[in-house]
Amino acid sequence: MLRRSLFSAIAPANGTSTPADSGTLRSYVGALVDVGSWKLVLVLLLAVCVTLTEGVGLLLLVPLLQVVGLDMGGGAVGRIGGFITSTFDAVGARPTLISVLGLYVLVISARAFASSWQTVVAAAIAHEFKVHLRQRLYRAIVNTDWLFFSRSRSSDFTHALTAECDRVGRATRQLLRLIPEVGVAAVYVLVAVFLSPTVSALAFVSAAGLMLLLRGKMQATRAGMKEASRATKGLYAAANEQLSGTKTIKSYGAEERNVAIFSRFTERIAQLYIDAARHGAAASAWLNIGMVLVLSLVVYVSIEILAAPASQLLLLLYLFAMITRMLTRVQTHYHEFI
Q1: DSSP-derived 3-state class of residue 143
Q2: Among 26, 36, 256, 318, which has the highest number of CB atoms less than 10 A from its own CB?
Q3: Which residues cross the membrane (predicted)?
Q4: Which of 166, 89, 73 is nearest to 127 (CA)?
Q5: Mean pLDDT, to the nearest integer, of 201-225?
């Protein structure tokens, strides 16, 4: 029943929710949109700015390789180089080392400012949403019927108002961090596909297979975090009940037994979080190892089978290295959100 009260507090005033995960997610998103309003739009616009500047900075690597004397060839890299050169010509400039480096610094600086602004706005949304959730939940608790209130443990209310609301706030921050990172990863993927569809398809199929192999470890991490959350709720109840009965405990001289019971609770919760962290770390480690194997496969196929030019190979190596890093970060934020 307390869980239903929490769901009703998350849901907008004119909506309904169900205990199902999909219904909870819809209620969460609806409440977040209701609270965030224009700030969410600003976060999305800043995410677009981050994505676009990342793409422009990536494309500027091509003329940078040109001005240092690397042959671009006539393939996809050559077409990108020709497009950027024509853009420089259109504004009456010539792509020299200083001009390309200067433009690259400006673009990356704009990306940094947009990313910083987006982080601040996302943090504001997360904290405002947490305040909104706590207020609605507290109002729901205060206005609940007496029978439900008297049969419920006060520690359950305290846990929901503190730890669980904090979890929702952290999940919101992770979700808002996930948005620009997915956009940046999409830019890298699109450029990689443009440079070499064959190599990109091979890499993505291999990466998809790797994700399927790691699915069990990812599910174990989520299950461990859920169990740890339930155990933390029990810890709140145990602490509240034992502290409330301190006088009785002292009168019977049962302090050490009381401490032992509480210690077992805390040790169990610590072990649950350690196990969840172990599963998450193992999944990340195997993901990185697998991505290195995929990258090695890309290099081998590009050199031995497709005879890719050096400029294209360098860009593909950079792209897949960045995609690997971005996928790891996206995976981390996704699991923290879930």
Answers
A1: coil
A2: 36
A3: 38-62, 96-114, 185-214, 285-303, 309-328
A4: 166
A5: 75
Among 158, 163, 199, smallest CA distance to 320 is for: 199
Q: Are 316 and 308 in contact (CB under 8 A)?
A: yes
Distances (CA, A) of 14 to 9, 22, 27, 30, 132: 11, 18, 11, 10, 15
Provide the 8-state DSSP code for 267. Answer: H
pTM of the model: 0.68
Find out whether 2 and 158 touch, Cβ atoms under 8 Å: no
- Please say whether the beta carbons of 70 and 100 come within 8 A: no
Task: Please give the Cα distance from 118 to 108 (Å, whole number).
Answer: 15
Query: 165-195 and 76-90 helices cross at what angle (nearest 10)?
Result: 100
Identity at 155, one-letter amino acid code: S
Q: pLDDT, tens digit, for every residue of 71-100?
A: 666 667 777 777 777 887 787 777 788 888
Residue 310: how many other CB atoms lie within 10 Å: 14
Q: Is pLDDT at 109 greater than 90 in this prediction?
A: yes
What residues contact 314, with CB distance under 8 A and at least 6 apart?
65, 70
Task: Quote the distance between the C-alpha of residue 129 and its chain's center.
Answer: 18
Q: How many angstroms separate the CA atoms of 53 and 314, rounded?
A: 21
Structure tokens at 195: 């440079």
Tokens of 92: 């009456």
Q: How confident is the model at residue 105 (pLDDT cuts 50, 70, 90)?
A: very high
Burial 145-155 (b: 16+ CB within 10 A, else e): eeeeeeeeeeb
pLDDT at 70 over 70: no
Rounded distance, CA 1 to CA 156, Å? 11
Quick one: which of 114, 111, 113, 87 has its CA closest to 100? 87
**CA-to-CA distance for 81 and 325, rounded, in angstroms?**
26
10, burial (CB in 10 Å: exposed 0-12, middle 13-18, buried 19+): buried
C-alpha to C-alpha distance for 236 and 243, rounded to whole angstroms: 11
* Rg of the chain (C-alpha set): 26
